[in-house]
Design a protein that fits this description.
single chain; 5 domains; four-stranded antiparallel beta sheet; alpha+beta; three-stranded antiparallel beta sheet; Cytidine Deaminase, domain 2; 14 strands; 52% helix
């Protein structure tokens, strides 16, 4: 006899299916009734198998990590931007009905909390609502947010009202005159917004299912799939009924990995055969990453804001933050301000032309970098189209300086001489050719010097391996350059060291600009070749038109190594001379050779950042629907802005980092060769945001080789450092770092 009561189970399942069908019909009738009366809102949009009855926006916020994080990021960003009130002449005001209403919002919220909750509701639900609480005379007392997940809009004829469900089946009606409604675009309804959650429902379902399956699979012992082998032959009907029974009892994500236990059938019973699982079936990492990226894209929140560093480097992290503010937050805040001006202000009586706006000028990510402004101003002046006074006024908002003729004069780019009469084109061309020839000769001389040093390194390494002469302390004849332990003395010493390195920074910056020009030319040529194919319907993948990264690394090593070696040797000699050390600097010791080898490896990776930057330029151009010729122009403009000259931001970042890295390591090697026992940290006084641990180390003394700056717990990727540009550090420690050290002389 068959051991399961299949008939009873089948009847039970049929009854459940009938009940579900009736419930669906009832829901359809209710939806039809709502659409007939014009009620909008409070509708389910997806039905996860494992969470019946909880398919709403708050459920997604409470259960999906990425939804929670994105909504928080948008809400916190909105709360951080000041709300400004201006009169009809554009002047800021702080008194009056509206400014005072936002000064006291309600008993439970201040203005910042109201902005945060409004932006969060709008991002999560597609709707945010305020209720104007009025006094007995109709004047505004406070603003109270309404819960969007309990709200709906009802239209009867020309009358719009808002309905709040109070849970017990009762409804609370709000006159539209007392409700301010912020809403996203909704293609099906005019009076109710659509949430981004609805567009990403499938991704949320998949992410939740993968998460539950993974959790339960591990909780149930990570048991693999198995097969039941009956001792007796089963009929097709028995096989199907057994399969349905097993799926009903042990299938689904909540039972993932559970061991199935059955009573025997007859004398033979069942045999359990383990089938095994592949690692792919037991892991959902890639699936969850894909779902995560879809959710983040729907909200417009980049990964770096959530602490996700996959594919993020120092250069594009700032770009992601700027895109979040420019492409996500700025439109949202402008929409909120427009709704306040058009819906709230007119409802509060005569406000005499008052308007509100979010002060985006206070957002750091939206401000032009000071280096960008300075370099743009220099280019505007050197182009001969603007005077210094015009640049001061247009670019920096500074007043015009009167009585200084030089500030109202037009200049040319060659050597910043005032334009007076015609300039000979032939003379300019001859000067440019002579300058190019001089630079080529200097580069060749540096390469030849580097080759000679490398040729001598083998013999010198052998000599270095022999017992070294006694180590001498700094010469008593030389007077130490640090007269006291004051901050001013350290600042002057640091400035002197930076001036010594300025030629190396410029030489490296020019090399970077020249080499990165070749990378850009390769991309432009590839885009031109694709454009000539005439395939109007298909844009080439960025990977097809990007420069060859392996060849780029080889070229960077070939062009930059000589500059780095020269900077290393000059810095070591300067350290010995400046501090009066007794042993001359030797750049070919084993320590120097090890540094040179590591430097070549690092130089090979430098084009990777530009590779990612150009990929981003092309990707954004594609998204904007640009043609291939327009994409070429975008690539060229990006190169000009970031790497077009030695002092552009991208070239400066590499040149300053590499020059100071070479100098710091040469200084340390000079200390080793002279037996220096204690050193002092000199913090950079450059006008950049300092690293807190580097700044805290300024003026501190340590035994040579001991840790100065510890890893910063608030900055990812930082390390304990024994000196600036320590080989134990990484990009987070070294990029833009211009800190230095000095020996402590008793």
């Amino acid at each position: 006899m068959w051991p399961f009561d299949i008939r009873a189970r089948r009847e039970q399942r049929e009854a459940e299916e009938t009940a579900q069908a009736q419930a669906a019909e009832q829901a359809a009738e209710q939806a039809k009734a709502l659409s007939t009366t014009g009620a909008i809102g409070q509708y389910a949009f997806w039905d996860p198998e494992e969470t019946p009855g909880t398919a709403d926006h708050p459920w997604a916020y409470e259960n999906i990590t990425w939804v929670y994080s994105c909504v928080h990021a948008i809400g916190d960003a909105a709360a951080s931007v000041p709300l400004v009130f201006r009169d009809k002449d554009g002047e800021p005001v702080s008194t009056g009905v509206i400014p005072e209403l936002f000064t006291y919002v309600n008993d439970g919220q201040d203005q910042g909390m109201l902005k945060r909750d409004t932006a969060s509701d709008n991002a999560l639900h597609g709707n945010a609502l305020w209720h104007i609480v009025r006094d007995s005379r109709g004047g505004p007392l406070s603003l109270r947010p309404l819960p969007p997940h309990n709200m709906g809009a009802r239209v009867k004829g020309n009358e719009l009202t808002y309905v709040e469900s109070e849970g017990s089946g009762d409804e609370k009606i709000y006159n539209a005159e007392d409700v301010i409604h912020f809403r996203e675009y909704q293609p099906k309804h005019t009076f109710w917004g659509m949430s981004a959650i609805e567009a990403m429902a499938i991704a949320i379902d998949a992410d939740r299912a993968a998460e539950l399956f993974n959790r339960n699979f591990l909780r149930n012992g990570a048991m693999p799939s198995a097969a039941l082998i009956a001792a007796e032959n089963l009929s097709p009907q028995q096989k199907e009924e057994l399969r349905e029974r097993a799926q009903e009892r042990w299938g689904g994500t909540k039972n993932a990995g559970k061991l199935m236990v059955l009573s025997g059938m007859g004398e033979g019973g069942f045999n359990f055969l383990e089938m095994g699982k592949t690692p792919r079936e037991a892991q959902f990492i890639e699936l969850r990453k894909m779902n995560r990226d879809q959710i983040l894209a729907a909200f417009g929140v980049p990964r770096i804001l959530l602490g996700i560093t996959d594919g993020v480097n120092y250069a594009n992290a700032d770009i992601q933050r700027k895109l979040f503010w420019s492409d996500t937050m700025r439109p949202k805040l402008r929409m909120l301000a427009a709704t306040i001006n058009e819906a709230l202000v007119p409802k509060l009586g005569d406000t005499d032309g008052l308007t509100t706006e979010f002060d985006l000028g206070s957002v750091e990510a939206l401000q032009p970098d000071y280096r960008d402004r300075a370099e743009t101003g220099a280019k505007m002046i050197s182009s001969g189209q603007f005077t210094p006074n015009q640049v001061r006024e247009m670019l920096h908002g500074l007043p015009v300086v009167e009585g200084q003729p030089g500030l109202d004069t037009y200049y040319m780019a060659a050597n910043y001489l005032p334009i007076a009469g015609d300039v000979s084109a032939e003379k300019e061309e001859a000067e440019a050719e002579a300058e190019a020839e001089r630079e080529a000769q200097e580069r060749m001389a540096r390469v030849e010097a580097a080759v000679e040093r490398i040729a001598e390194s083998v013999e010198k390494a052998r000599v270095a391996a022999l017992p070294r002469p006694p180590v001498h302390p700094p010469s008593a004849k030389a007077e130490p350059q640090i007269a006291d332990d004051g901050a001013e003395a350290r600042k002057l010493l640091w400035k002197q060291r930076q001036e010594e390195r300025e030629p190396d920074v410029r030489a490296l910056g020019e090399t970077v600009s020249r080499v990165w020009r070749k990378f850009t030319d390769e991309v432009v040529e590839n885009l031109e070749a694709e454009d000539k194919k005439g395939l109007k319907q298909t844009l080439p993948s960025p990977d097809v038109v990007l420069f060859d990264l392996d060849k780029a690394g080889d070229l960077a090593v070939l062009e930059m190594t000589a500059e780095e070696l020269a900077a290393y040797e000059r810095a070591g000699n300067a350290t010995v001379d400046l501090f009066g050390l007794s042993t001359p600097f030797d750049a070919t010791t084993p320590g120097g050779q090890e540094w040179a080898a590591e430097t070549a490896k690092r130089i090979r990776t430098l084009p990777e950042t530009y590779h990612d930057e150009i990929r981003g330029v092309i990707g954004r151009a594609y998204e904007e629907g640009q043609t291939l010729s327009e994409v070429r122009y975008a690539v060229e403009e990006f190169y000009k802005e970031q790497y077009g000259d030695w002092n552009t931001p991208g070239a400066q970042r590499i040149a300053i980092t590499e020059a100071n890295g070479a100098a710091s390591n040469a200084t340390v090697e000079a200390y080793k060769q002279n037996g220096v026992e204690r050193i002092r940290w000199l913090h950079s006084h450059a006008p950049l945001e300092p690293r807190p641990t580097h700044k805290a180390s300024d003026g501190q003394e340590r035994e040579f080789g001991k840790v100065f700056a510890t890893a910063d717990p608030n900055r990812k990727g930082t390390h304990d450092l024994r000196w600036p540009h320590d080989d134990k550090g990484g990009p987070a420690d070294n990029i833009w770092c211009r800190c230095d050290t000095a020996p402590v002389v008793e």
